[in-house]
Design a protein that fits this description.
Bound molecules: phosphoric acid mono(formamide)ester
Largest sheet: 5 strands, parallel
Order of helices and strands: HEHEHEHEHEHEHEHEHHEH
Distance between the termini: 26 Å
Structural class: alpha/beta
Number of helices: 11
CATH superfamily of the largest domain: Aspartate/ornithine carbamoyltransferase
Number of strands: 9
Strand order of the largest sheet: 7-6-5-8-9
Length: 314
């Protein structure tokens, strides 16, 4: 099915075949970015960021600019008419007449989904509360595919804040659809993956899940170690955050016990959970992961907009 005109609210909105189409195009764009430099000429990306962001917003902007399009929007809702009480529905009804594709980040779960119901232009969820972050998931899956050559038959450990971390919720849901992936969930007891999500994935996909509080005990069996930040902004009190914030710190010494070809991934930003001494280890791919985010977003927007991506021979 064509991706033209579709919304992306949840990574499972697209079939595995549709995801592969995005990754195939992203691979081509990585190999020959200049060839795609004008495919979105005349197109406009609207960015509605009601929450802070560095990578998501700027990589979307970079992606559209690198394809010859333009960008408008806000990165601080207090400078928009939202501060006067305008609803999401009214904001998007107007914005979709100014832009051809829209990316929205919002602290409330479900806000981009609501926006998509009022938008004539494709809406992309740039992260909604502790719920989902589908374009981070596309970035993560592309990174895994490029480094491992496959997305199936992998042992993936998620470490840190599995309760509030939307990147974890999105990625584990998406990976559950690939054959033979098993999951190791490493977190303090208070920050475990929500039971409803865990049980849903077990029942729907019959996935293999192990839960532990110890990174050291399991690091030797893992193919992908997905580290995450403790999500300070989602805690109800400072004391709990202070107690849990340094629950896991991956350093070079701990990596000695890991497989030689394990990947250390992180959606970024990091705080303390990966020491700087890991940055030089070839297994630490988190900066490359952030870079791949540009290409996967280029591919995504090109396909949602339905522009001609056949640049061979032009
Ligand atoms: N990974 C990610 O979403 O980063 P930002 O919050 O900087 O966009």
């Amino acid at each position: 099915m064509s991706l033209k005109g579709r919304h992306l609210i949840d990574p499972n909105d697209f079939t595995l075949e549709e995801l592969s189409r995005i990754f195939d195009l992203a691979d081509k764009m990585i190999d020959n970015r200049e060839a795609y430099g004008s495919i979105c000429k005349g197109k406009i990306l609207g960015t509605l960021f009601y929450e802070p962001s560095t990578r998501t917003r700027l990589s979307f902007e970079s992606a559209m600019l690198r394809m010859g399009g333009s960008v408008l929007g806000f990165s601080d809702a207090s400078t928009s008419s939202v501060s006067k009480g305008e609803s999401i529905a009214d904001t998007i009804r107007v914005l979709c007449t100014y832009a051809d594709v829209v990316v929205m980040r919002h602290p409330k779960e479900g806000a981009p989904k609501l926006a998509s119901e009022y938008s004539a232009a494709p809406v992309i969820n740039g992260g909604d509360g502790g719920h989902q972050h589908p374009t981070q998931t596309l970035t993560d899956l592309l990174t895994i595919r490029r480094y491992k050559g496959r997305i199936d038959q992998l042992t993936v450990a998620f470490c840190g804040d599995l309760k509030f971390g939307r990147t974890v919720h999105s990625l584990i849901s998406a990976l559950s659809r690939y054959q033979g992936c098993r999951f190791v969930l490493i977190s303090p007891n208070e920050l475990r993956l929500p039971e409803t999500l865990k049980n849903y994935l077990i029942e729907k996909y019959n996935i293999d899940v192990v839960e532990t509080e110890s990174l050291e005990k399991v690091i030797n069996e893992v193919d992908i170690l997905y580290m995450t930040r403790i999500q300070k902004e989602r805690f109800f009190n400072e004391a709990d955050y202070m107690r849990l914030k340094d629950s896991y710190i991956l350093n070079r010494s701990k990596l000695k016990h890991a497989k030689k070809d394990m990947l250390v991934m992180h959606p970024l930003p990091r705080v303390n959970e990966i020491s700087y001494d890991v940055d030089d280890d070839p297994r630490g791919v988190y900066f490359k992961q952030a870079e791949y985010g540009i290409y996967v977003r280029m591919a995504l927007m090109a396909l949602l907009l339905g522009v001609d991506v056949n640049v061979e021979g032009k």
